Amino acid sequence: MDATLQGVGVSHGVAIGEARHMGTAVLEPPAGQVAPEDAEREQERARRAVDAVAADLVARGQLAGGEAQGVLEAQAMMAQDPELQADVERRITAGSTAERGVYDAFAAYRELLANAGEYLAGRVADLDDVRNRIVARLLGVPMPGVPDSDEPYVLIARDLAPADTALLDPSLVLGFVTEEGGPTSHSAILARALGVPAVVALPGACAALPEGTVVAVDGATGHVTVDPDDEQRAALERAAAERRAALAASTGPGVTSDGHKVPLLANIGGPSDLPAALEAGAEGVGLFRTEFLFLDDSAKAPSEDKQVAAYREVLEAFPEGRVVVRVLDAGADKPLDFLTPADEPNPALGVRGLRTLLDHPEVLATQLAALARAAEGLPVYLEVMAPMVADRQDARAFADACRAAGLRAKYGAMVEIPSAALRARSVLQEVEFLSLGTNDLAQYTFAADRQVGAVSRLQDPWQPALLDLVALSADAAKAEGKSCGVCGEAAADPLLACVLTGLGVTSLSMGASSIPYVRAALAAHSLADCERAAAAARAADSAEDARTAAQAVLAAK
Ligand code: PEP
Ligand code: MG
Fold first, then answer.
1. Residues 152-208 pLDDT 10s
2. How far apart are CA 265 and CA 486, in angstroms?
3. Under 8 Å CB-to-CB from 389, ≥6 apart: which residues?
4. 116: domain range?
5. Is residue 185 domain-shared with residue 256, that is, in the same domain?
6. From ligand 1's centre to the CA of 488, what distance in Å?
7. Do 117 and 212 belong to one domain?
8. Is residue 134 located within the same domain as residue 173?
9. Does the model's pTM come out above 0.70?
10. Helix axes 82-93, 39-64, angle to 10 degrees
């Protein structure tokens, strides 16, 4: 029997191998009773398990580095949340065993999160993962997670917790398929950072791909073929070999076949992502997500000196290149205890990004001062941008802060809110460049939470409405003689990268592992081809039709 399932391809490459399922069983400990005189011992057991799990998550983070580290450290903090710990202790005092106390306390907290709006509900998977780890340790059973196997396999999961994605061994895990998760979810971003082929948002994947079945995962097209026959395997392997050959042949700066330059830049979370960016031939950094520096300590911002050291390491890696640093983007999917209001009904629409910084000008001033010091004496071409700029007033406030800090850099605005795209010319009166954050721009254009797999159709950056907003922004920048890059995940899709170029985007920034694919795609087409593909995509009425139309134009030339 063979069948091909369609998910959302989020990390390029082809993987063929046996399916292995993620150990996701929820361990429900029996509701035992503890005598009052044993309560203290049980509490000590619970504390030790919590600390051990938190230490393990931190250690995994250090091993993984990059963006994964921040995510895992946030999970470690979740495990040691003082209120949660106090609830565990209360339950043990009332007679629960340590494992049952942890289980019930997390269940109560889970319910709070699940009912606290879509954004917090998106963190439930992380919370469940932490609970399962603590309960498994207390019960003395193996940790849930990546299967133990000496043979390479394709990992199938309902969803992947950041702790597991970060530790996937690319030499054993050939690729992965998940039921949940959208194209801009943390799992997808981490998969690309690892360079593992991945397909997400494939409902029913666990049932359709039983343990031991041979599956073929195409992370470019989103196809997952069950029991591929010899002909299908050969076709997939041929396509993958062709892509590899095209990659090997492509080096150097980003440029179309007729010489139109489109700098290819890397998205990084910190200095540990630099080696991969340099190896992929990135021409600079197009998005330095500085919030990962802030995750170490939930109570305060990192010191100016600590920030200077991290920024300088990144700036020194591209001595003649361009480095675009995004100031802290806290809130919504990246909350920070000391900055993010705890009681917002809908944090994605609340005080996040630049709004947070304008409420805490001292945090912004320290960050800008650290950047100014880090760039001192270096020939690097520094650019600084603000996340979540809504209008000209926001852009002016950010530009004023940059001027007040004496920053010798270009300052720009991220276009992540439709209002900024619609009024891009007015925003550009205050700043020198635009950078399109297509992940959030899609989220806000389609009212579709980027953490929720069920709405991934609307998160698809091929949506013609999103392409219209890209075109508006690029046209405005051109009219003002300024630049307009893309640093959202849309830039990592080779075909879409050609369309974005055709829409007038001036640089593309992406996870390092996507750079060779995008470079090869650009090199195969002229600017006029890209413009025709862009027009065809915008004339469509759905993401799927836009992709097909662009593909037809570029394949036909
Ligand atoms: C975006 O929203 O597209 C973006 C680049 O920012 P982040 O993914 O960090 O929110
Ligand atoms: Mg964003």
1. 899 998 887 666 666 667 678 888 899 887 777 666 776 776 777 899 889 899 889
2. 10
3. 353, 354, 395, 398, 413, 414, 415, 416, 417, 420, 427
4. 36-139
5. no
6. 5
7. no
8. no
9. no
10. 150
Per-residue pLDDT tens digits for 449-484: 987 878 888 999 999 999 999 999 999 999 999 999
Mutate to test the pocket of ligand 1, among 325, 334, 354, 439 (most ligand atoms within 8 A of CB): 439
Distance CA 81, CA 342 (A): 14
**Active-site position among 484, 487, 498, 530:** 487
Instruction: Please confirm, yes or no, whether 530 is among the known catalytic residues.
Output: no
As for how many domains the chain has, the answer is 3
Q: Establish whether 12 is a catalytic residue.
A: no
| 487 C-beta closer than 6 A to ligand 1 | yes
Q: Is the dihedral of CA 525, 527, 529, 535 positive or negative?
A: positive
| Shortest-distance Cα residue to atom 6 of ligand 1 | 437
* Ligand 1 centroid to residue 107 C-alpha, Å: 31
DSSP helix/strand/coil, 172 = coil
Residues 355 and 503 in one domain: yes
Task: Ligand 1, residue 488: give the atom nearest the CA.
Answer: 3
- Closest to 339 measured CA to CA, from 284, 299, 391, 392: 299
Does residue 251 share a domain with residue 185? no
CA of 411 to the centre of ligand 1 (A): 17
Minimal-distance CA residue to ligand 1 atom 8: 439
